[in-house]
């Protein structure tokens, strides 16, 4: 079958500093783009490979990129003129991705899709996903002791040194050997600093500490949202590191992570409250802007009527009122933009925190991949707000659905009415539903039923009957009881046949004998 194959490759190291004669594009001059210690933009060049298995070639292939919130690209939609087939050289599309100060990194995954049309006119697509290096989101920094938020992950493996685990972070361009040695001085602690600053403008740091005696890792930071990305990357690196060792050593138990501390739900609820408050603020600002714009249009119409009139009436300070309304309109427009920016920041931090809570729930209750994927799909960790439907009402409806179906304790709970999906006044119901879901997961309830392995049924050996049980009774003979087995029936039929043969051979002697009697 003719199809387009799309794959991607992202290096572990950032792009080196450009030459002196480098002509930077307009995106590299953007003030939102992060610049490293050497003044060069922090970027990585990924390569997309497009290969076609058909005998001819494809024309006008469109490649679209879905980027994380902290990544910028010059073009997210790229046109590829021709892709050769018949096993030809794949078309290579280089993509330069820049780190921006827009938001706290919530994901390192980039999704790419290629849309094309076959020779017969059928539209088709090809998809792939790849991860960006951690260095595009953060850099190494001297150890920081801030531990406002912290948690500990336990593993079933001996402790791993952090320097070889994050070896690529020590090999980034712009980091000298002396600086790398200073950062690697403490083998049991490693601190990362995001390129984006915190809400108060202070640096956003995350520190990873490893125990010397057991495979325990503590992650701590001054921001709850900042814990997510480093924690996720740490677990991925540990799984890859011990996965390779387990294959070579043939370990019986697979690598596992556990979380035994209480879930930070109260801090998560505070983040939800702040996000909902930003939504209400934006709604109020939009309403005020709409009222002010309506007032401005009315004043404008009255002035136009008087301007067209041959004998106009006095303005009665309408011009002054229009000028003041226009100033107020500009002020409200600025307030709406500020409220939108605040909502984006709140949504970004809520998204990071929701992903962190999901990870901790998974390791706290030992969820497998199936149950975790179902919970993630209902928890909506990627916060997307629109005027018609927000994150709070969407997750509340999803949690209510889980409590009515997979996590229902009684038949009465399955008959509960589905709540209306509208912006709530507060988060009381959402808090309650999330707490109930976590409580039932803690009690052993699962979202997906376990798959039962079907074992072939073995036939029971026949029981040996006593002679009395094998001998048919008079009732069995009279009614032809089906409880008599086949061997008994064959024996009875054989006996009857022998009696009939004896009668035939005697030539009716039995009748003469009866007459004598």
Automatic annotation (TrEMBL):
Residues 1-13, 448-465 have a biased composition (Low complexity). It comes from the Eukaryota. It holds the Pfam family PTHB1_hp. Residues 367-441 form the PTHB1 C-terminal helix bundle domain. Residues 466-482 have a biased composition (Basic and acidic residues). One of its GO terms (biological process) is cilium assembly. Residues 262-363 form the PTHB1 hairpin domain. Transmembrane segments: none annotated. Residues 46-130 form the PTHB1 GAE domain. Residues 133-245 form the PTHB1 platform domain. GO terms for cellular component: BBSome; membrane. Residues 1-23, 446-517 are annotated as: Disordered. Residues 506-517 have a biased composition (Gly residues). PANTHER family: PARATHYROID HORMONE-RESPONSIVE B1 GENE (PTHR20991), PROTEIN PTHB1 (PTHR20991:SF0). This is PTHB1 C-terminal domain-containing protein. The lineage of its organism: Eukaryota, Sar, Stramenopiles, Ochrophyta, Raphidophyceae.
């Amino acid at each position: 079958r003719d199809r387009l194959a799309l794959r991607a490759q992202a290096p572990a190291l950032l792009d080196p500093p450009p030459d002196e004669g480098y002509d930077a594009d307009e995106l590299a001059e953007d003030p939102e783009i992060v610049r490293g210690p050497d003044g060069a933009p922090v970027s990585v060049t990924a390569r997309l490979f497009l290969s076609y298995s058909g005998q001819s070639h494809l024309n006008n292939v469109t490649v679209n990129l879905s980027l994380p919130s902290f990544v910028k690209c010059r073009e997210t939609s790229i046109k590829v003129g021709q892709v050769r087939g018949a096993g030809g050289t794949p078309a290579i599309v280089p993509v330069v991705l820049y780190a921006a100060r827009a938001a706290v990194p919530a994901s390192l995954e980039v999704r790419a899709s290629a849309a094309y049309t076959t020779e017969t006119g059928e539209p088709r697509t090809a998809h792939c996903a790849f991860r960006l290096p951690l260095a595009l989101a953060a850099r190494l920094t001297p150890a920081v002791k801030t531990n406002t938020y912290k948690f500990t992950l336990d593993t079933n493996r001996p402790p791993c040194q952090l320097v070889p685990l994050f070896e690529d972070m020590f090999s980034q361009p712009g980091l000298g050997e002396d600086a790398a040695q200073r950062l690697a001085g403490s083998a049991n602690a490693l601190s990362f600093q995001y390129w984006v600053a915190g809400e108060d403008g202070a640096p956003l740091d995350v520190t990873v500490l490893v125990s010397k005696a057991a495979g325990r890792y503590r992650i701590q930071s001054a921001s709850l949202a900042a814990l997510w990305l480093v924690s996720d990357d740490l677990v991925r690196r540990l799984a890859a590191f011990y996965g390779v060792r387990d294959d070579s050593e043939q370990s019986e138990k697979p690598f596992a992570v556990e979380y035994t501390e209480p879930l930070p739900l109260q801090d998560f609820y505070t983040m939800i409250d702040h996000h909902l408050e930003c939504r209400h603020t934006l709604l109020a600002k939009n309403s005020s802007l709409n009222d002010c714009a309506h007032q401005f249009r009315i004043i404008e119409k009255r002035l136009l009527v008087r301007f067209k009139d041959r004998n106009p009436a006095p303005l009665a300070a309408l011009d002054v009122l229009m000028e003041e309304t226009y100033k107020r309109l500009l002020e409200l427009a600025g307030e709406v933009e500020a409220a939108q920016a605040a909502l984006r920041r709140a949504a970004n931090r809520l998204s990071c925190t929701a992903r962190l809570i999901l990870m901790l729930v998974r390791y706290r209750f030992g969820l497998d991949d199936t149950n975790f994927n179902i919970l993630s799909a209902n928890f909506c960790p990627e916060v997307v707000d629109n005027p018609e439907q927000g994150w709070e009402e969407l997750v509340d409806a999803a949690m209510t659905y889980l409590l009515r179906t997979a996590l229902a304790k009684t038949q009465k709970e399955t008959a509960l009415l589905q709540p209306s999906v509208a912006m709530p006044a507060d988060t009381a119901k959402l808090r309650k539903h999330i707490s109930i879901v976590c409580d039932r997961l803690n009690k052993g309830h699962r979202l997906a039923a376990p798959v039962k392995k079907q074992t072939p049924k073995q036939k029971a050996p026949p029981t040996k009957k006593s002679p009395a049980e094998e001998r048919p009774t008079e009732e069995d003979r009279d009614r032809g009881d089906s409880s008599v087995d086949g061997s008994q029936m064959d024996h009875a039929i054989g006996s009857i046949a022998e009696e009939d043969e004896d009668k035939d051979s005697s030539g009716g002697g039995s009748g003469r004998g009866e007459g004598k009697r």
